[in-house]
Design brief:
Elements (H helix, E strand, L loop, with lengths): L3 E8 L2 E2 L2 H16 L8 H4 L11 E7 L3 E8 L8 E5 L13 H8 L5 E6 L2 E2 L6 E6 L2 E5 L7 H8 L3 E4 L11 E5 L11 E2 L3 E2 L1
Parallel strand pairs: 5-6, 5-13, 9-10
Antiparallel strand pairs: 1-2, 1-3, 3-4, 6-7, 8-9, 8-11, 11-12
Length: about 200
């Protein structure tokens, strides 16, 4: 069974943000199998020409030393209206893994639509995305994510997001929160009022 995965947005038959996905895959393979391990070229293996250009797809790539499976699924964003803070001080999700048991078990403890994971008093991520918080017209993202997502990296480079250390007690100083991941269009992703977070 594959150990790692990449989730890539296919929009109008184009794989979005591919260089950052490639960099993450390269880093993952070399960290686990040595600095000389060869890595697949995502641009060569993702064949999206036959896909419907009017449908946004999630390309799910499973791999360990090599790619074992590539799947394309039409993507429908989940409706998220409420979030709840949950604490886990030992969680480690530095690499994008196929085994998400620890994340799903945390979600099972909450009655909210999604969770915000707090580690050692610091805000990290939701179960399946990075986070962005709005204050005075600017968006801030925790500098302590569990996983440095590719969309998060892109938005930081573009100046749309600003990294900062965020503690649980800082939440009420913000106005809204957005979920950030490869599949969500930043401009269209809903902004959720902070009051909808159970702290």
């Amino acid at each position: 069974m594959s150990r790692f995965l990449e989730s890539i947005c296919i929009n109008k038959k184009i794989a979005e943000n591919l260089p950052l996905h490639q960099a993450r895959m390269n880093r993952t393979i070399r960290d686990h199998y040595g600095p000389n391990a060869t890595t697949p070229n995502l641009r060569e293996v993702i064949k999206a020409n036959y896909l419907d250009p009017d449908v946004r797809y999630k390309c799910r790539i499973l791999y360990d030393r090599e790619i074992s499976q590539i799947e394309f699924h039409p993507y429908v964003a989940k409706s998220i209206d409420t979030l709840e803070c949950v604490i886990n001080n030992t969680i480690d999700y530095s690499y994008k893994l196929t085994d998400r048991k620890v994340l799903n078990n945390l979600k099972a403890t909450s009655g909210a639509d999604e969770i915000i994971i707090i580690k050692n008093g610091l805000i990290t991520d939701s179960r399946y995305s990075n986070l962005a918080f709005l204050k005075d017209g600017s968006w801030y993202t925790p500098s302590t994510p569990l996983l440095k997502g590719t969309k998060r990296q892109k938005l930081i480079k573009e100046g749309m997001l600003h990294e900062t250390l965020l503690k649980k007690e800082d939440l009420n100083s913000f106005e809204k929160v957005k979920l950030v991941n490869a599949m969500l269009d930043w401009g269209k992703a809903p902004s959720i009022p902070i009051k909808n977070i159970k702290i």
